[in-house]
Amino acid sequence: MRQIPPLAAVRVFEAAARHLNFTAAANELGMTQAAVSYQIRLLEERLGTSLFTRGGRRVVLTEAGRQAAPLVSEAFDTLDDAFGFARAETDQVLSITAAVSFATAWLAPRLGRFQLAHPDIALRLETSNFTHDFGKSGHDIGIRTGRDPAMWPGMAAHFLHRVYFTPMCSPDFAQRLGGLTDPAQLLTAPRLASDADWWDLWFKAAGVETAVSMVPATRFDAQNLEAQLVMAGQGVTLLTPTFWTAELADGRLIRPFETVAFDGVCMWLVYPEPKRRLRKVRLFRDWLIEEYAIHARTDTTGAFVAP
After folding, report:
1. Which end of the chain is more exposed for a tag (fewer CB within 10 A), N or C?
2. Local structure of 298: helix, strand or coil
3. Closest Cα partner for 90 from 275, 286, 283?
């Protein structure tokens, strides 16, 4: 039977022996200097011998420490090689799950930029409006809507934007209505709605008093479906401007009114806490946050300020 001391303490010893400095070892391992000292003391008590001689800011290996250090480093190198294949495969594929509208309207057209910057990382994108159990699904990252990151225990969560929306339609549709200059005109216009309450919220924000929820509206479960219909002139719908910048820029969609409304929900980038240090997760997180910063720099709605 192997008589191996606790691996956590052995790992600390290996780093401290390389640096001959507990503070440097702590920085490498993401620990406090006090935690490093504690682990070394536990290991020395377990072995019944000192591994370091403490003096000033630096430490010196004892004879026992000098004999053990190279063998321990070699053992960790062997472990690194043993898991190298699995780690390499994991590092090369980033699995993302995202809400349908966000994935199709915003993320997919931009993923090429991420891949050009990081050609060694393959992407797998799954679209779904359901919340996944990351432990079972194997996804690395999710983009989801929610009111509070506490709804994803054990997950790191980064705020992206507040969910906001405003009416959009095709230029031809607006022309058929004789131009849209008054929000109240939309009360009798053919409307699409992915959320039963969004029109109520928007009319209230626009200062239009109405029991709009009593007026029938065609409903879909994703903005991308609504956008395709309104670009074909089938009506007017509420869309999130961030998702449709290209269509607004080339005139396929127009925003008749500047008024936007919020429903109290936010978009979040989430991933399991244990994956925080993975290179592929860090790279995608930083890239996505920077992409959102582009929107935030020109936004005047407050959508990119965390509530």
Report:
1. N
2. helix
3. 275
**3-class DSSP state of 210:** coil
All structural domains of the chain: 7-82 (1.10.10.10), 142-307 (3.40.190.290)
- pTM of this structure: 0.68
- Measuring CA to CA, which residue among 137, 81, 127 is closest to residue 106? 127
Q: What is the pLDDT of residues 38-50, one digit of tens each?
A: 999 999 999 999 9
Q: Which residues of 150-161 are buried (b: 16+ CB within 10 A; e: fewer)?
A: eebeebbbbbbb
Return all residues near 228 (Cβ < 8 A) that are at least 6 apart: none
Question: pLDDT of 155-213, one tens digit each?
Answer: 899 999 999 999 999 999 999 988 889 999 888 888 887 665 888 899 999 999 875 55
Those residues whose C-beta lies under 8 Å from the C-beta of residue 161, and which sit 6 or more positions away, are: 242, 266, 267, 292, 295, 303, 304
Cβ atoms of 50 and 36 closer than 8 Å: no
Cβ contact 51:65 at 8 Å: yes
E strands in the chain? 52-55, 58-61, 93-98, 122-127, 141-146, 155-168, 192-193, 218-219, 237-239, 261-272
Cα separation, 282 vs 276, in Å, equals: 7
When pLDDT is averaged across residues 27-38 and rounded to a whole number, the result is 89
Q: How far is CA 186 from CA 180, 237, 238, 264, 280, in A?
A: 8, 10, 11, 23, 46
71 falls in which pLDDT band (50, 70, 90)? very high
Shortest CA distance to 154 belongs to which of 275, 7, 19?
Answer: 275
218-219 and 192-193 as β-strands: parallel, antiparallel, unpaired?
parallel
